[in-house]
Specification:
The chain is mostly helical. The chain has helices spanning 2-20, 59-62, 67-99, 103-131, and strands spanning 33-37, 40-45, 48-51. The chain has 4 helices and 3 strands. Strands 1-2-3 form a 3-stranded antiparallel β-sheet, with no helix packed on it.
Length: 132
């Protein structure tokens, strides 16, 4: 029974690995799509592909000809520019508070870092809704 189970798990694993290695290219629809090539995310529109950078990439340039979309893309970029540094600063502050400081001062630093992380996550979430 164990040999059969091992064989079935091996076959299932091979199918899953093969499925994850396939590529999908959406047809050109005039809308912005998100594609993955070689493990990297790219925005795609009408055959043009631009990398998704840490602050939203070149989404603004990709949708510049549509004013309403350009407004959302710019707002997403601005919110990413605030949210990502705030989140990283908050995470570093929490780590410093846990690792270095002790007593009441440490708890204050941890709380300040956690609230900064929450603010950063809020901005990043809002930016994601504008980017999509």
């Amino acid at each position: 029974m164990t040999a059969v189970r091992v064989t079935l798990v091996s076959i299932a694993s091979c199918w899953l690995v093969a499925a994850c290695s396939t590529t999908y290219q959406p047809r050109h629809s005039g809308r912005v799509g998100l594609v993955i090539h070689h493990g990297g995310a790219l925005f795609e529109k009408d055959g043009r592909e631009l990398p998704v950078g840490p602050f939203g990439g070149e989404l603004v340039g990709l949708v510049a000809e549509t004013p309403a979309a350009a407004v959302h893309a710019q707002k997403a970029h601005n919110q990413f520019m605030i949210g990502i540094p705030a989140y990283l600063t908050g995470a570093a502050t929490v780590i410093i508070g846990v690792a270095v400081l002790s007593g009441p001062v440490g708890w204050i630093v941890i709380g300040a870092g956690a609230s900064t992380m929450g603010t950063g996550l809020s901005f990043m979430g809002a930016a994601f809704t504008h980017a999509v």
